[in-house]
Write a structure and sequence with these properties.
- This protein is elongated.
- The strands form 3 sheets. Strands 2-1-3-5-4-6-7 form a 7-stranded mixed sheet, sandwiched between helices. Strands 10-11-15-14-13-12-16 form a 7-stranded mixed β-barrel.
- Strand 10 and strand 11 form a beta hairpin.
- The chain folds into 2 domains: 172 residues, Rossmann fold, CATH 3.40.50; 131 residues, Bacterial fluorinating enzyme like (Elongation Factor Tu (Ef-tu), domain 3, Beta Barrel).
- It contains 7 helices and 18 strands.
- Helices cover 21% and strands 30% of the residues.
- With 316 residues, the protein is an alpha+beta fold.
- Pfam families: SAM_HAT_C (PF20257), SAM_HAT_N (PF01887).
- Belongs to the SAM hydrolase / SAM-dependent halogenase family.
- This is SAM-dependent chlorinase/fluorinase.
Length: 316
């Protein structure tokens, strides 16, 4: 395993609540030497897909050797695994619901462990005991594994108090649940079906289309047609928000490499009536030549990104 940096990055959907502070307290109780970076606690509630988007696009800004703890866990207390994933440069800890997969895969998965919750809790209790020879009273809740499993495991690994083998059983990486933040269906030469993978606090709508990954040069297109099951909007293509007038829609490649829709000084999600995980059709209109007729006829979908034929289980 890469040399620990003694940095723990936290991501959750806990928002402004005591749960975030308690996780931080648990980490510091295990080792006061650890640095904690609160990456984001405003992940939309119950959305491992949005969590996966944030984890995948933020982890690389942490020092190599950091431990990233991601808690977006609507299945807490069920039979889902609690995972620790060792990659080439980091360790990712969280529930097995897809939230860890895109980030771990992009850094290169080396080993995956299913955490033994009782062993994590037992070692954490010893490390947080205030008096030598005593054990801190601490039971495992069925509804707060952020406190009782994930934060302690992250702290124990980041501080060098435990190895992955001491905290879990190794499993095949193919058994991990998979969320895909860049899965699209190609419906035609310039037409795609995509997913809303994230909506930020400004209402900017990030789609699963990653132009560079698909070999798309957005500068060749003047606009996009965004279609939902009820409406269709033609949106100008730009490079930044100011390429549209205040209140107007604009499409561009965001800082994480995704096609994104925004309203200059407004809220695109509200304007378009889009929600997280919604499916949309995108048609790219070229700068010159005849505009596509926008036909939505029957086509054979050419799956791009993570397909249902991949190993493991793809959730989105």
């Amino acid at each position: 395993m890469v040399e620990p940096s003694k940095v723990v990055g936290l991501i959750s959907d806990f928002g402004d609540s005591p749960y975030t502070g308690i996780m931080r307290a648990v980490i510091k109780s295990i080792s006061r030497e650890l640095q904690i970076i609160d990456i984001d606690h405003s992940i939309p509630s119950f959305s491992p897909l949005a969590g996966a988007y944030v984890v995948a696009h933020t982890y690389q800004w942490l020092p190599k050797g950091s431990v990233i703890v991601a808690v977006v866990d609507p299945g807490v207390g069920t039979s889902r695994y609690a995972l620790a994933v060792e990659t080439e440069n980091y360790v990712f800890i969280g529930p097995d619901n897809g939230v860890l997969y895109p980030a771990a895969a992009s850094d290169g998965i080396k080993r995956v462990y299913a955490l033994r919750e009782k062993d994590v809790n037992s070692l954490a209790r010893m490390k947080t005991s205030s008096t030598a020879g005593t054990v801190k009273p601490w039971s495992i809740s069925r509804t707060f594994h952020g406190r009782d499993v994930f934060a302690p495991a992250g702290a124990l690994i980041a501080a060098g108090h435990a190895s992955l083998e001491e905290l879990g059983d190794e499993i095949e990486p193919e058994r991990m649940k998979r969320a895909s933040i860049d899965h699209v269906e190609k419906l035609g030469p310039s037409t795609f079906r995509a997913t809303v993978v994230y909506i930020d606090k400004f209402g900017n709508v990030a789609l699963s289309i990653r132009p560079k990954k698909l070999g798309i040069n957005l500068s060749l297109y003047k606009s996009v047609v965004l279609g939902t099951h009820t409406t269709s909007n033609t949106i100008r293509m730009g490079k930044t928000f100011g390429d549209a007038n205040p209140g107007e829609l604009v499409a561009y490649e965001n800082s994480f490499g995704h096609l994104e829709i925004a309203v200059n000084r407004g809220n695109a999600a509200k304007k378009l009536g889009l929600e997280l995980e919604a499916r949309v059709e995108i048609e790219l209109l070229e700068n010159s030549g005849p505009a596509p007729n926008g036909s939505r006829g029957v086509r054979n979908a050419d799956l791009l990104g993570v397909s249902s034929r991949s190993l493991g289980e793809t959730i989105w």
